[in-house]
Write a structure and sequence with these properties.
239 residues, alpha+beta, Arc Repressor Mutant, subunit A, Chorismate lyase, 2 domains, six-stranded antiparallel sheet, two-stranded antiparallel sheet, 8 helices, elongated
Length: 239
């Protein structure tokens, strides 16, 4: 099967972007310049650039050309409801979960409102940092209603709470509401994450529901600002 002419050009440009020969924020050569460089037609280089744009390596800006994006940022789905284990499977990187706290607590007034429960209910509090390629870049603080999750162990928290809920407890996790903000890093962030010089984190609040529309989990997921690109897919419907 004959390979399309633009594929080797796409592969070469992709390799140069991933190896910082073309650094984030810089402009790629124009279609005409690339055509001369690769001894091909402008149409062929345009196809290669379009594929780079589709796969998140460049942003085509009218009047400015093709701007290289930061490919070191990892895509984190906004609309999907996935566990860190499931996200990690697609990253192709070395990952590790560190459990800093696992305790059963009485709900306070703030958490009871978050979880739409009474202060008589108890909640599992789980604090975990997530390492990617040896750097702690996510801090997850989970609160799960004990009446829905009767038992929880450190081993489960290190592996996957969602896997345990779905395959051991046979519950169906259905949907979540999410809020995303940028906040100043807290003292706990500085203690448990490898922030370096970064002073802010992306905070994703998750309110997670079972298939009977019962809210059973509230999570604060705190991400190092420079490491993630939060992505979504939207389809326009004409009214």
């Amino acid at each position: 099967m004959r390979q399309n002419k633009f594929v080797p050009i796409y592969n070469d440009l992709q390799d140069k972007i991933q190896n910082n020969i073309y650094e984030p924020g810089l402009k790629l050569p124009s279609e005409n310049e690339l055509a001369l460089q690769y001894n091909t037609s402008r149409e062929t280089t345009r196809k290669a650039l379009n594929l780079l744009a589709q796969n998140g390596f460049i942003q085509k800006v009218q009047g400015k050309g093709s701007i290289v994006l930061d490919v070191n940022k990892m895509n984190f789905p906004v609309s999907g409801l996935v566990s860190f284990k499931e996200v990690a499977r697609n990253l192709g990187k070395e990952v590790k979960t560190n459990v800093h706290e696992l305790s059963l607590q009485q709900l306070n007034e703030g958490l009871s409102q978050m979880l739409q429960a009474t202060i008589d209910d108890q909640v599992w509090c789980v604090v975990r940092s997530r390492e990617i390629d040896g750097e702690k870049v996510i801090l997850d603080k989970d609160y799960l209603l004990q009446k829905k999750i009767p038992r929880l162990t450190r081993e489960v928290c290190e592996h996957s709470i969602y896997d345990y809920i779905e395959n051991e407890l046979n519950l169906t996790i259905s949907f979540a509401k999410k809020e995303i903000t940028v906040e100043n890093a807290s003292l706990q962030d500085e203690e448990l994450l490898d922030l370096g010089d970064h002073k802010h984190v992306v905070l994703v609040k998750n309110f997670v529901y079972l298939d009977d529309a019962t809210l059973f989990q509230y999570t604060e997921s705190r991400h190092r600002l420079d490491k993630f690109r939060f992505v979504d897919f939207a389809r326009r419907s004409r009214g």
